[in-house]
């Protein structure tokens, strides 16, 4: 499990870097609804990433102890996505819906990019 926490640490660092860029975009451009949607969606995406890592750790602990295995929390992540869409549709003057959806997908994009970068560094 240590490699899971190392991966999460790297991915969390990338997510915070993207969030900082989005906040700067929100503060210094005229596309405030788009960048606020990206901030909102990416924040929830980071929460989903943390939730997924936590559930994977619990899953690994349960398997190693021979206990019954519960789900990996897909319903919680879907509910977070639904909440993001509902909030962005409720406040369209502040949040751009497409930006929120792109922000929700950010953690999966970061996971893929981190995997490719890390696998290239290992094979050198």
UniProtKB/TrEMBL annotation:
InterPro entries registered for this protein in UniProt: ATP_synth_I, ATP_synth_I_Bacilli
Domain of life: Bacteria
Alphabetical keyword list: Cell membrane, Membrane, Transmembrane, Transmembrane helix
Localization, UniProt: Cell membrane
Record field: transmembrane: 12-28, 34-53, 74-91, 97-117
Entry membrane topology: Multi-pass membrane protein
A Pfam family this chain is assigned to: ATP-synt_I
Entry keyword annotation includes Transmembrane helix: yes
Name this protein carries in UniProt: ATP synthase subunit I
Organism lineage: Bacteria, Bacillati, Bacillota, Bacilli, Bacillales
